[in-house]
Structures are given as C-alpha cells and as structure tokens.
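User: Can you fold this complex?
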Amino acid sequence: NAGVTQTPKFQVLKTGQSMTLQCAQDMNHNSMYWYRQDPGMGLRLIYYSASEGTTDKGEVPNGYNVSRLNKREFSLRLESAAPSQTSVYFCASSDGAPLHFGNGTRLTVT
Amino acid sequence: AQSVTQLGSHVSVSEGALVLLRCNYSSSVPPYLFWYVQYPNQGLQLLLKYTTGATLVKGINGFEAEFKKSETSFHLTKPSAHMSDAAEYFCAGGPGGATNKLIFGTGTLLAVQP
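Assistant: Here's the predicted assembly.
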C-alpha cells in the first residue's frame, strides 16, 4: 500500500521555467491538498480539492495552478517559476481528519 | 483568526529524559488537534490526534498529549527520550471536520543527546 506518492523527489528550475508536480493516492480519499513547507513557517496550504471535480484556493495560491485529474491524482503547476517558490512541496489526502502526506518534492528555483 | 503556536523551535534533551513539546492554540470553538512527526527527507506522519472525548490522548512510539481547554494547550510528552525520537514535530489544529482549514505550527526540532 503506497499511500500518497509524489514525483519528482527533487527538481531544480531556472526562473521563468514551468513544471508540474504530480501526486497520486491509493486510499480512495475524496480530499487532496498541496502544501509548501518553508523553514520557520510550518506548512501552508496552497490549494485543495474537497472532491473530484472541485478545487479551491488555500492560504498561498499565487503563482500556482492545480488540476484534480481524477479521484486518485492531484497535480500542482508552476507556470513561471520564481526564486520565492523554492520550497518543499507536500501533497496530502484525507477523508476527514487526519491528513496523510507524501514524502515531498524539494524544488529549487535559481 | 485561529492560530497554533509552538513554543521553542529547537529543544534538546538527553536520552532517557522527559520530552515536553509545547503547543497552544487559539480558537473560539474546541478544535481538532494533531501532532505530526517529520523525519529527515520524509513527509509528516501522524503521532496522535484529539477530536472529541478523552482529553488525554495516547499516540505511537510512547508519545501522549493532553488537551487542556482552560489553558488552550495541547502539549506533547514522552517519559523517556530515545535517540530515534530526534525529528521535527508539528502541532496542527482546526475546526472539526474542516481539514482544509487546518493550521500548522512552525515546528519544533527535537535533538536527543546520548
């Protein structure tokens, strides 16, 4: 049982490049989330999807877009990466509390 | 606005000593509260949760936490630290059932000295 799987694990981008972070869960959860983790700031919610076909903004959505491709998959896209988006990105899923997290994608934007 | 505050970004204890990690929350309604642990280069794993009922909650690896409404606290404790407990710990809270409104604390990095 893999749980929540994120790809890639590491990525380096140049300013202005685009990329998509992939997330898939095999727990049949309805809700999925994207967080970013920055030192001294804990985790902040970027976007979430309460159910297949719906997405909503979280606390820090600017510069990101998401797609809930189906019940299993929830992707996060950076259209034009900026150094301020250097962070560790976590995908999570749930059916109510608690959240189940993937192992993260470490993104560096130079 | 709701908030979760973890006191102490770094805590160091000796192996075998008591572990106490502090978490306070602000909420106008009793929240759901969680402690998560993060080992290096991994995601967050649930240690324990408080939703309703018994205020003393036991979790994995010998950790427990007590919900104290009068003190708006949910401190994490373990009687005897092991080297394997070295990790970062996050407290999180939010209104019951609304996981999209979960607020995370800034984390406490626990070091365990031999």
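Chain B touches chain A through 23 residues (CB under 8 Å). The CA atoms of residues 2 and 28 of chain B lie 8 Å apart.
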